[in-house]
Batch of 4 targets.
Target 1
Amino acid sequence: MSGGPLPPPDGLVAGAVEALSSARHVCVLTGAGISAESGIPTFRDALTGLWASFRPEELATPEAFERDPEFVWQWYEWRRELIRSSQPNAGHLALVRLARLAPSLTLVTQNVDGLHQRAGSPLVLEYHGNILRDRCVVEQIVAERSPGGGGNLPRCASCGGLLRPDVVWFGEMIPVEALVAAEDAANDCDVFLSIGTSSLVYPAAGLAEIALQRGVPVIEVNPSPTDLTRHADFVLRGPSGTILPALVEALGQGDSARNPQ
Ligand code: APR
């Protein structure tokens, strides 16, 4: 993508379009907000967020699972049903298009819902794992369920060990491959796009800080202010399902204007 920018549509900021239109490598970090318009609750939104009705320490820690695995599984099975019955939205789809427009794009997601992959995003770094996979507690690998089940608790088909959702719980390490690849991308990108995240949970929230320290433009897409807002170079205030399609449209128009076929 080369040449000067075109006037941006409403809600967009010229500088953000320009930064993206001249980007060689875009690093994107998404959070629960990008899936909100697919009907999946975020975590911290005041009334609607999951943590408004559930206590994370009772559901999303290894200690909670040890204490009461059935209770934890009930909650994860409820979330899985919600996710299976939801669809990627215009925000997810716009990122698939952005990946085609940008010379290089790294998509890091904190979301465990797999909606980026279902939208068609070619490569997704699952920073917090994936809720639809099971992991064997004994072998610490992604595993199949034993057909016989094991009462209300799923068991590993190969060793009979207890299975847990393949997600990162509070106090646990980020999968090394995703951790390293995401940091490499934040250290190499020339634009950082932070979408639908409160920027409160580390180490994910540290990725934008790497970009800030390097002085590359940081663009935030969020209907509400976050901890990153005052540091971001461009803030696109609105739902990602509206902002991202408009952003990609502006980039696409710019591209075809500059490179008429
Ligand atoms: N479009 C874009 N952003 C939105 C939208 C929307 N339609 N609706 C809400 N948001 C924003 C909110 O304003 C908020 O800033 O999405 C953000 C969601 O923040 P959180 O609920 O804190 O989710 P996230 O940042 O992804 O949480 C990080 O915390 O609970 C853990 O492991 C969990 O991955 C999660 C991590």
Target 2
Amino acid sequence: MSQRINPSILSADFANLQSELDSIRSADLVHVDVMDNHFVPNLTMGLPVVQRLQEVSPLPLDVHLMIEDPERWAPGYAEVGAYSVTFHAEASTDPVTLARGLRDIGARASLAVKPGTPIEPYLEILHEFDQVLVMTVEPGFGGQAFMAETLPKLLLLDAERRRHGLDVWLQVDGGVTVETIGVAATAGADTFVAGSSVFNGVPADRIAELRAAAQQHTASHRDDTLSR
Ligand code: DX5
Ligand code: ZN
């Protein structure tokens, strides 16, 4: 099964974003955190900055919208060419219609849930999404500790996508390090956002270490263990 490492530029040097993007070329996508100071108590960047990142980034953009009223704002990120647009279930009034709109524009549609939000209500609409983001910290800030209590949601999502043969990516975001990436991969995650653990060192080395750690732990290992 393919896995992806998506560094979060929330932990990058905002004064040198172009060189920071170059430093993570060996990753798969670049994770861009948009915060509006309403949905989360922090403020980052908006559409004009993301549009410029889209123009210069060697990697496709994985945009994570931590904003209120995604129905109003999310399509604009798809229109500037973001490869994937994630909006939060807690903020959306109609996730299915919004996801269809994002796909119509040409982006991958992705649904995020905060640590305390149950995933069961969304399992029956899983086919409407290209990715589900299970937040493994409370959204808003980098550098927080991984919340292992979110892992059962990945197990449920992984079982559901297998049952229906869906090609939906399962992303984790928050506290992902070489120590925690394994349990997330074993639970079914295949797409890993890492901010501080990439940019606190030499990014290319950190990406390689995360990739190696993830490859040793996949959902198929879980099956092997269970069937023994
Ligand atoms: C937090 C953001 C994350 C953040 C992760 O709300 O959504 O993408 O950058 O940072 P780390 O990997 O440091 O937990
Ligand atoms: Zn994020």
Target 3
Amino acid sequence: MLVKGTQDPLEHYRTLDVLRNRFTREWGEDIGELPAMDAVERLVVLENPRLGLGMDLDNDGEDGGAEGGGIGRGWTLGRDIGGGDGLGGVGSVRSRKKEVKKETRLGLTYKKDKDFGEWYSEVCVAGEMIEYYDISGCYILRPWTMAIWETLQAFFDAEIKKMNIKNAYFPLFVTENVLQKEKDHIEGFAPEVAWVTKSGQSEMEIPIAIRPTSETVMYPYYSKWIRGHRDLPLKLNQWCNVVRWEFSHPTPFIRSREFLWQEGHTAFATKDEADQEVLEILELYRRIYEEFLAIPVIKGQKSELEKFAGGFYTTSVEAFIPNTGRGIQGATSHCLGQNFAKMFQINFENEKGEKAMVWQNSWAYSTRTIGVMVMVHGDDKGLVLPPRVASVQVIVIPVPYKDADTQAIFDACRSTVETLCKAGFRAEVDLRDNYSPGWKYSHWEMKGVPLRIEIGPKDLANNQVRVVRRDSGAKMDIPMHSLVEQVKEILSNIQESLFNAAKQKREACVKVINTWDEFIAALNNKKLILAPWCDEEDVEKDVKARTKGELGAAKTLCTPFDQPRLPEGTLCFASGRPAKKWTYWGRSY
Ligand code: 86X
């Protein structure tokens, strides 16, 4: 194999395992995705024992690791049998420059502010959160993702247990009959339902659906289990996956065909109890976003058009993505009223011995939370993880110079990690000897680790470490004796700074408007619009129709609970009728 512009004095790169995007010395021996991968602009494999044919690979970055698999990030398979000289000719000055730059850093191809969509996919993959799968809209959640999910899960699970909500697990499958039971609200969703119609080669007698949400799976049993007022409240939650076969553009975490979530389904004797729980759960969702993911959210109520059709009212936490100017629903907490109780006959005998219907709630948050985090905090170097959710909060990297006592540096690194772990931090050391310190810096920056500690000969001599913040790039030297206190301080400062920066960015996007012209101007400027509204359903439909286009229509995000004063006589921006409330509008995910 001949690689253009790649220095390979050790002759490591003998073979490129095309199927796995890995360089190997021998077939089957994996020596990793090397930093020099990006330096290869074009390579010709003259003989390949697996494929039999010679081939020509272009590293033009167009593939971007997106849809359809391909052979990996930035690589496309071309065919130019015998056409290349294996050296790719003499590169232009420009392309040589590019090679040098690419050789020294493993960076992202796309910029957040320039190509946001491509940047997002690339950062999810390069940060090792996600791997694309060969079914469109399905993604592998890698350990780096699952650790964050588990942190959010541990928090929420503990909080709902304090509320005496119990976990249960209901089946993945639902029969057509049962699914159709709530046909009014299923109607609109029907195209998204995935069905199992065969077992082996034989058609099944009755096809079964895969749950898109579990109302129809659970509520027949709520009807069975609830008899008298002493059976109430019934408060169950389940952690599971759901499948919605979406047709609009799939995006990792944000819109995937299968995702993980929790769904809570509760039943009460009174409306008051239900109302109170809706807000208690919504507050937990706010805390997930603001306290863990460092993302500011707006709590509010959904409009009639945007609420869960089967419910009574819907509350949500809404986040905002400044780069695309889109709102994104972060989580929802619904009061279902007695609608489902009617459909599924969930009745009970009250204290007076009369037959009554239960009041129900349902609420959910999903792995979408993690996508919002990537979008809000990530930068051109990769992921930026808030310390509270990062599975590695501190990465320690040895920096041995040529004549330095490598063993002593390694020992100092190990003991630093031990000190930090004992103090309750999540710290790791990267002692790999096949990567340079510089490569490791980029690698862990790409993965978004909040704090890096470098230990070199000078640090060793001075009994100090050098720390570098992922969020700001700020560097400082810390004496060993105050390591624990200072790391604690810096991590909590990073958590706070990330939230403040995100909040400031969002605030800069909020635009208060009063007229239709102002509304359109703000929409075109990617603003999060706060507008006085008459709260009429057909007015929202009209706004949707009038703003329809390539980017999608504008709609209400929520009516914030926190309402600014609405001066007497204020008119609706869209209808000119008297305004009833301030409502957030915008395009959304
Ligand atoms: C709406 C409503 C509700 C329990 C929640 O938001 C919280 C947790 N569920 C979910 N919804 C559907 O009901 C639905 C139904 C079908 Cl059949 C579907 F294919 C997709 C759906 N998407 C959302």
Target 4
Amino acid sequence: MADIKAALRSQHIETPSWAYGNSGTRFKVFTQDGVPRNAYEKVDDAATVHRFTGVAPSVALHIPWDKADDYADLAAHAREQGISLGAINPNVFQDDDYRLGSVCNPEPAVRAKALAHLLDCVDIMNETGSRDLSLWFADGTNYPGQDSITARQDRLGAALEQVYARLSPSQRMLLEYKLFEPAFYSTDVPDWGTSYAHCLDLGPQAQVLVDTGHHAPGTNIEFIVAFLLRRSRLGGFHFNSRFYADDDLMVGAADPYQLFRIMVEIVLGGALDASSGVAFMLDQCHNIEPKIPALIRSVMNVQEATAKALLVDQAALREFQVSGDVLGANGVLTDAFATDVRPILASVREEMGLDPDPMGAYQRSGHQKKIAAERVGGEAAGWGA
Ligand code: LRH
Ligand code: MN
């Protein structure tokens, strides 16, 4: 049990700055009181999630949503708050010029504009000390024939090569894939295979980013995780959950058993430890629920799935597997999943000097009321879509 607790104490779950801002759908973006107005206040909220969970010591930034005059100063502010700045996410999907794509756009000038932004984000990484450039392209087409699928892949490859060349030896490029939306016929990086192939073309510092909401319904995501781990190309996750499409709901809320199966492959693959290089990041939008407690709950959901995965009796599992005992092997996983790990996590938190009940502690802290009272005036952060 000691090693399980040690693994849980050293877990590192990165929260996304954009989850602290107002978000919604094309139908409505509901505003909430106390929402941050700038990158500094988003960092403060991320630090609050870390203060109550102990395992969320970094926050990912999205540029220009988190534009700052001095990124080194923002990084210093984060350190003062007890966290660090994590992955840098460029944004080449919210400019009119990107109607037909960004790096895959048929127009060379538009491709150059997108590339310039990606390179600017590498410069920002040098200021924030971030390791990961987290790339997602909305690029795609809406109608058959709209553009050449092959030519778009050539354009994508050319841009990625130039960004890759700009990385320092300690930096990485994570290439996120997504089946559809906002493009509704073809997406230029639609699946793990396309991302993986581009990463192989680029080099070892290019890794695949698995956003759990970006697959066709019924996709066996843990197979993708096991496959990429075996090839040392799993760069990380954007954890969230969904009932239908890219719903970006709290991780584990829709399908906790799927999250458990994913964490089982992580544990079996020896990838839980930070040395594995796998980045465990959340990517969520809290359209109707209060944001800081939603992220505290999300971090706890990942902790619970991880604790259950760590309880899998690997020796028994292997024995049942090699002896072809199907029910025996499956039973090892379902037994672990059925285990109530909340007492283990409560004691881990106490050992870390934290309240065993982070959600209750946050409610009792009155922090939500405090920020709602303080953050009056100015423009609440959002996606600006
Ligand atoms: C695209 C995505 C991507 C981010 C955005 C906020 O759906 O998952 O990771 O840039 O959400
Ligand atoms: Mn994502």
